[in-house]
User: Which sequence fits this backbone?
């Protein structure tokens, strides 16, 4: 039986596949090590507020995208799939916006205001509702030729303040993502 050129090249490197398997195993274990069990969440310090931002796994749409959350035009954190982040904020009104990274879909574009009161802990869920539909259309050459079109429409970027008793069970299965700046505490 004749073997293809790719297989012959692979055999020439003699056991290189073992190194590849070992490297992939190390990478997989490293990725798993990032998921840490939920520790006690930090509460708001007197005179300030604590806000936890979470991106729940409601849908696989945009799963591989990590848009950026901005607070008053300052980068705050990446909204990775099934993750959360935490911030300490001073009381006031903040402008929150979400923007896609350069290579990502524009379904992650939105802006809103949020009022923060002192001595409170907030749980803000951010996700996107994208609706997909398929339809059959006809392309007319000499004769009609049907083809299927799949279109996505951004119903909108969603955000919702979630009660703590609903947020905590969800956060327990999420990965913590550090804020972009450790000392990030934007002021209104």
Assistant:
């Amino acid at each position: 039986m004749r073997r293809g050129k790719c297989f012959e090249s692979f055999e020439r490197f003699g056991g290189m596949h073992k190194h590849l398997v070992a490297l992939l195993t190390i990478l997989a274990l490293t990725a798993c090590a990032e998921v840490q069990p939920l520790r006690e969440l930090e509460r708001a310090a007197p005179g300030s507020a604590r806000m936890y931002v979470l991106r729940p796994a409601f849908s696989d749409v945009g799963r591989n995208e990590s848009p950026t959350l901005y607070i008053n035009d300052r980068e705050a954190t990446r909204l990775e799939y099934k993750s959360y982040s935490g911030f300490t904020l001073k009381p006031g009104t903040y402008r929150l916006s979400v923007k896609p990274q350069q290579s990502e879909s524009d379904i992650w574009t939105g802006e809103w205001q949020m009022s923060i009161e002192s001595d409170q802990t907030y749980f803000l869920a951010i996700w996107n509702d994208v609706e997909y539909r398929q339809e059959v259309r006809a392309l007319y050459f000499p004769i009609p030729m049907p083809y299927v079109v799949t279109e996505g429409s951004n119903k909108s970027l969603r955000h919702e303040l979630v009660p703590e008793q609903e947020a905590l069970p969800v956060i327990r299965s999420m990965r913590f993502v550090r804020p972009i700046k450790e000392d990030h505490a934007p002021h209104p």
Observations:
- The chain has two domains: 1-33, 41-176.
